[in-house]
Amino acid sequence: AKDQGGNRPCLYNEQMYRALTRRTQLEEEVREALNYDELSFALQPQIEILTGRLVGFEALLRWIHPQKGFVPPDEFIPLLENTESMLRIGYWGLRKAFEILQRLRAMGLMGCKIAVNLSAEQMLDSRLGPYLQELLAEFGPYAQWVELELTERTLVMDIDHCLGIMHQLREMGFSFSIDDFGTGYSSLSYLKKMPVEVIKIDRSFVAGMLENHADYQIVSSTIAMVHNLGMRVVAEGVENKDQLRCLNELDCEIGQGYYISRPIMESDLFSILSSKVKD
Ligand code: C2E
Ligand code: CA
Ligand code: CA
Ligand code: CA
């Protein structure tokens, strides 16, 4: 649009310009972050609720910037949507996940899965399949121990394309979960088409389930429906004993949240594990 304001500064364009430069700057910084080893994973344990047994970890991206310190993923990931940097971080993350699996196995933790968050752009990137194939060739047959977390945003972007990729990656042995279930825009109809093993109930519903009748109903009916479709449920954001007990009564299989464990920095996790092994 043309500047109609005479010599009045055009705020709209200025804001757009600032947003764009901020975005470019951030991309630049993230690119450097990758070079300077500022990225790592924190690993949050997932337990089988009935037995308390550790069944896996979700890998959560951590960026420690030399000046800014810890930058939460919610602050920089949305800014990187549709950028090459997001893809590079994604591939870095998948490789990292395989490295972690290898170390866990070397320490004798055989039955633990690792869940990795996959961005929409990565899911739809043509290099994903070949890259995963390379990782399998390099690290060994870990596919069944890697769970790929997709959000409803990704699924609605291009459902047929997504389905094709999901079938292809499942052939290779990988499994899928749907993250933040219940918060997206999609209808339930796609659920029956999706080759998905696990549904992760969003933590907002878990947070409210003991005080709020609607949240409780959403949690309990989601669990029942997911079971009827032959899938398993992970409850996110379990913050206290009462929520855990209630989820157990509702037959929810897996729990994740601060009450069970905070995310643990990769380096800390390995020192905890190696001291346990020595004991
Ligand atoms: P998410 O995938 O839903 O991850 C769960 C978030 O909930 C994590 O936040 C985790 O630290 C937090 N959380 C876990 N338990 C509790 C709890 O009991 N209470 C509360 N209040 N929060 C809990 P985090 O690590 O800040 O990550 C935020 C989001 O950033 C993630 O949400 C995910 O969407 C995105 N993200 C993180 N790592 C990656 C990654 O490697 N790739 C991509 N594409 N996205 C990522
Ligand atoms: Ca997730
Ligand atoms: Ca989630
Ligand atoms: Ca979330």
UniProtKB/TrEMBL annotation:
Residues 23-277 form the EAL domain. It comes from the Bacteria. Keywords: Coiled coil, Membrane, Transmembrane, Transmembrane helix. The keyword Transmembrane helix applies. This is Diguanylate cyclase (GGDEF) domain-containing protein. It comes from Bowmanella denitrificans. The lineage of its organism: Bacteria, Pseudomonadati, Pseudomonadota, Gammaproteobacteria, Alteromonadales. The chain holds residues 527 to 805 of 820 of the full protein.
